[in-house]
Each structure stands twice: as structure tokens, then as C-alpha cells.
């Protein structure tokens, strides 16, 4: 394999020493900006978080076009920015691991990336299809090069990767997932696909259907036991069955001659699951290689931060354990930010996102003032509530736009209309504060905030708040809402650094093992399509090849 180590400008992870050097530089930079890292936009107005940032920076960025703000996390600066701001952005970007997709051929020269047909791709969106095509090809090539006979798909979900490996590459696969529903879907889907491939085959060919295992993987010991148990005496023939594992600490079976050489594969294996894969790769003799793409860093367990009796998901490497850098859930969550996704946003969508952040921060002020007991619980409105609010906000915006097209309301007409719903302009803005279109935009923003608040209060089971009270809060926070976009972009610029540190920690854990393990980070997917695109690829070398 033509291993090409990742590098970030002056930094490299080609050796353990170089990886440690990179991580030390990251830890030092992140340490200097910890207040910005730990800030949560929910408390933006309550804690006056714009004051955490250099006043000259905020004054400059609040005047910037949205397009410039969206490029900031990617390292794009403007000449007229303060020198210290330019230095912050450029230094941050220089520490980030390059994420531009590399061709799989640069990893394995003779690799063949099969295009997934419509039958196998059924149910996949374009993102998932892109991921499965590239990952399946790499897993097949690595398995072939290291002599692995069976693939263990960890966190298999609905079985997309497992089925691509089985039907397109004719590899035996064991699919492990915590959801019994996912296992049922995987089995049913595989049977449908098998019928298509059976009819397509001219010569008689044994079609391998993935074996599904339902198991909550609570530790690397559990994963090792399930993996070896599922593959023992398999002889390359996978049964169409679903097995359930409920043991918390199952006994690890010793590898036998009947246990085939294995390769572990994982597509966005969640939280500690990706970490447990690395530990099993190191500890289990039968596992010859690993291809893992992680995600959900916020769900990682963390040493010195969370009470856990198991090996933590972070840190893994000896060097990181000796470091004073502690992340915590909020900072790990920031690691999921994608500079590529920010850069690809349209101006309208970006402004809507900034507005939603402003509404959520203003909503927190409502909770603080009228429902302090709820606020103290640090409530999460949840994904369902967020989806509902965005849907309702979209309807309000569309309704406002439709009204603008039908009638050119005069200012007095709008005031009369809004008076019926408690939206009294004079309470907030006065009468003669500027052009009518500015009045209308401010009225529209308050209407959206009010709708957001009503939805949030309903979600939390709180009572109602009078419109005039909401107006008072909106009047207090609205002048500072223009700082939300710049603040969030500056914080988003730190996200890729946190992800880089977590990825390097995992790589260094493998590099610290011995000279019999080869490991690298490889940008396998298009980061705009799939932001979590970095694969950790590792394989074991024979003693002879190591000495050579």
C-alpha cells in the first residue's frame, strides 16, 4: 500500500514524534482560546459573550458581508482586518489536518471503486452512496492486501456497507449493531438484493448474505468477544440469522485455527464505538486490519471529566493523557463543525441560521426571567422541537413574503394590523426611527422570535408569556444580535482544530503500540458531502516485513 501521511502545513503525523509535536501545538493554541471554546451560544445574551472577543475584531466583523464570515472557518482573511484577527484565523487553519478528498488510488494503486447500482443503492441518498462506494472499495482492497477473509462491520446500521461488501465484492461480512430493528431491516433488504443478484448471475455462484448480530457494545472486551464468537468456525459461509448479545462483560474467546483473519470496518461508528474498534484491533490477534470513520465526538466518554469505569474514549494516547488539555462535551460537540459546510451555505440560509441562534439565546432570557427553575435545569428543546420551529419559521417567512407581493402595506396599516396581536411598534422602536422597510424587517424578526418562543415554551411544558413582555426582552437583546454571526464563525473556526486533536490522539495510540502496526489518516470522502470524512486505516505487519 502506498501510505501517504497527512500533513497540515508545517505539521505532519508521519511518525509518533511528529504527531506528538502537532498535538502539542494544537493544545497550546486551544488553551489560549479556551473561553471562546467553552462558550455556548444559548447563553450569548445572558452572559454578554461578545465581550469575550477582542472588541476591535467584533467591530470589524459585524460590518463584514455574510460571504466573508462564512469563509472565515476555512482560513480566508481580508487585508483590512486587524492583524491579530488575521493571525488567529491563519494560525488556526495551519493547525487543521487537510480534509480535501484524496483518490483511493493514492492509497492502493490498483484499487477498483465499483459503482453501486440502483438495486444496491435503494434507500441511500447521494451522501450515503458516495460514502459506501468509496469505503467499500478501500475495505476490499485492504482486506485483500493483508489476507483478511471476513469483514466485521461495526455499527452497521441498516447494512448498506455490509451488503455492498457482500454482493459487490463477495466478502463474508458480520454486521454488528445495537438496534434489533436495524438487524431486521438489514436481513430483509439483503434477501431482496440477493434475489436480484441471483437472477443476474449466469454461472452458479454462492451469494454471501451478511450475518447480523444485535449487541450493545459497552467496551472493547464486548466487541472482541462478539467478533471472535461470530466468526469462529464460520469458514466463510455466513448464516442468515440474527444473534443477540446482552452480556456486559462476556468472556473473550481465544483465537483458534478455525477463526478467519478479520478486518474491522466502521462507517461513522458513534462515540466510543470507533475507539473500541481501535483497541480490539490492537489486542486481538485475528484482526489484521482496520478501516474506521468516526463521528459523534460529543458522545465520547472522557477521562478526568466524566465518571466512567471503562477505558475512556478520550484521551487514548499516552501523550494526550499526560497533557493538561481537557475538552468536555461542549467542546467535543464543536468538533463536529465543518468549515466546508459553512463555506457552501447560501447567504439566505446563513442569515436564517444566525437568526435561529439569536432567537434561541433570547429565548434563554425568557426562561431566566419567567421560568428560572426550568432555566437552571439547562433544558434542551431537542431535535424535534428544532425541526418544528424551523418549519413554522419557514411558514411565517413565506407568509410575510406573500403579503409583500400582494400589497404594499403602508407603515400605518402594518401598525394597525400588528396592534391586534400585541406587536406595538412604539413600545420598541418609536415612531420615526427610519425607513419603513427597516421597520418591517424588525417587525418580522420579532414575529419570528415570538413564534420560536411559543414553540419552545410548549415543548418544555411552560406557561405562556404576554406579548408585551416578549417585546421588552427583544428590545434589550436586539441591538446585540448582529454579533451572533461573527461570534459563531470565530468559534466554528476552532471546531476543526478540536477534531484534528481527537483524530491525532487516535492515530498516536496506534503509533505507540509497536513497529508491527502501520497506521494513517486518510480523507476518504468529499468533505462538503460528508463532513466526517477522515478514515483511520491501520494494518499489522509481519515481523519479517518490519525488520526489512
From TrEMBL:
Domain (Methyltransferase): residue spans on this chain: 127-302
UniProt organism field: Panicum virgatum
Superkingdom of source: Eukaryota
InterPro entries: Methyltranfer_dom, METTL25, SAM-dependent_MTases_sf
A Pfam family: Methyltransf_32
Annotated protein name in UniProt: Methyltransferase domain-containing protein
Amino acid at each position: 500500500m502506498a501510505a501517504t501521511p497527512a500533513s497540515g502545513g508545517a505539521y505532519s503525523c508521519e511518525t509518533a514524534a511528529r504527531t506528538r509535536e502537532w498535538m502539542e501545538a494544537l493544545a497550546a493554541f486551544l488553551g489560549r482560546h479556551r473561553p471562546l471554546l467553552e462558550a455556548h451560544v444559548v447563553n450569548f445574551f445572558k452572559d454578554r459573550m461578545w465581550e469575550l472577543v477582542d472588541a476591535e475584531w467584533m467591530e470589524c466583523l459585524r460590518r463584514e458581508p455574510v460571504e466573508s464570515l462564512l469563509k472565515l472557518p476555512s482560513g480566508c482573511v481580508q487585508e483590512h482586518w486587524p492583524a491579530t484577527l488575521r493571525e488567529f484565523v491563519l494560525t488556526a487553519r495551519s493547525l487543521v489536518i487537510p480534509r480535501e478528498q484524496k483518490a483511493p488510488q493514492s492509497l492502493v494503486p490498483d484499487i477498483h471503486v465499483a459503482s453501486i447500482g440502483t438495486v444496491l443503492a435503494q434507500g441511500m441518498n447521494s451522501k450515503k452512496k458516495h460514502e459506501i462506494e468509496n469505503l467499500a472499495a478501500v475495505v476490499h482492497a485492504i482486506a485483500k492486501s493483508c489476507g483478511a477473509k471476513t469483514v466485521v462491520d461495526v455499527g452497521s446500521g441498516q447494512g448498506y456497507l455490509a451488503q455492498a461488501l457482500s454482493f459487490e465484492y463477495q466478502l463474508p461480512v458480520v454486521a454488528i449493531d445495537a438496534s434489533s430493528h436495524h438487524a431486521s431491516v438489514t436481513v430483509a433488504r439483503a434477501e431482496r438484493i440477493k434475489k436480484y443478484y441471483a437472477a443476474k448471475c449466469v454461472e452458479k455462484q454462492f451469494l454471501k448474505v451478511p450475518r447480523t448480530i444485535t449487541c450493545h457494545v459497552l467496551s472493547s472486551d464486548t466487541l472482541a468477544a462478539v467478533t471472535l464468537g461470530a466468526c469462529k468456525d464460520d469458514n466463510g459461509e455466513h448464516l442468515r440469522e440474527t444473534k443477540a448479545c446482552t452480556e456486559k462483560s462476556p468472556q473473550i474467546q481465544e483465537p483458534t485455527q478455525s477463526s478467519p483473519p478479520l478486518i474491522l470496518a466502521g462507517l461513522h461508528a458513534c462515540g466510543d464505538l470507533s475507539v473500541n474498534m481501535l483497541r480490539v484491533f490492537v489486542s486481538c490477534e485475528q484482526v489484521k486490519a482496520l478501516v474506521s470513520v468516526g463521528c459523534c465526538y460529543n458522545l465520547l466518554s472522557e477521562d478526568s471529566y466524566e465518571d466512567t469505569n471503562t477505558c475512556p474514549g478520550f484521551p487514548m494516547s499516552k501523550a494526550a493523557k499526560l497533557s493538561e488539555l481537557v475538552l468536555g462535551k461542549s467542546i467535543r460537540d464543536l468538533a463536529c463543525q465543518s468549515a466546508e459546510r459553512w463555506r457552501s451555505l447560501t447567504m439566505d440560509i446563513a442569515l436564517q441560521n444566525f437568526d435561529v441562534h439569536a432567537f434561541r439565546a433570547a429565548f434563554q432570557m425568557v426562561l431566566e426571567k419567567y421560568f428560572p427553575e426550568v432555566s437552571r435545569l439547562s433544558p434542551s428543546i431537542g431535535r424535534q422541537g428544532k425541526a418544528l420551529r424551523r418549519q413554522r419559521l419557514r411558514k411565517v417567512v413565506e407568509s410575510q413574503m406573500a403579503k409583500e407581493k400582494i400589497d404594499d402595506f403602508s407603515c400605518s396599516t402594518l401598525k394597525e394590523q400588528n396592534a391586534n396581536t400585541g406587536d406595538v411598534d412604539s413600545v420598541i422602536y418609536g415612531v420615526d426611527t427610519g425607513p419603513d422597510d427597516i421597520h418591517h424587517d424588525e417587525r418580522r424578526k420579532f414575529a419570528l422570535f415570538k413564534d420560536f418562543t411559543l414553540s419552545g415554551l410548549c415543548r418544555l411544558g411552560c406557561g405562556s408569556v404576554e406579548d408585551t413582555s416578549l417585546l421588552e426582552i427583544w428590545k434589550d437583546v436586539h441591538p446585540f444580535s448582529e454579533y451572533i454571526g461573527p461570534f459563531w464563525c470565530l468559534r466554528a473556526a476552532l471546531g476543526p482544530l478540536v477534531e484534528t486533536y481527537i483524530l491525532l490522539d487516535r492515530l498516536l495510540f496506534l503509533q505507540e503500540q509497536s513497529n508491527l502496526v502501520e497506521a494513517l489518516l486518510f480523507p476518504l470522502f468529499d468533505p462538503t458531502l460528508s463532513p466526517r470524512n477522515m478514515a483511520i486505516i491501520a494494518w499489522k505487519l509481519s515481523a519479517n516485513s518490519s525488520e526489512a
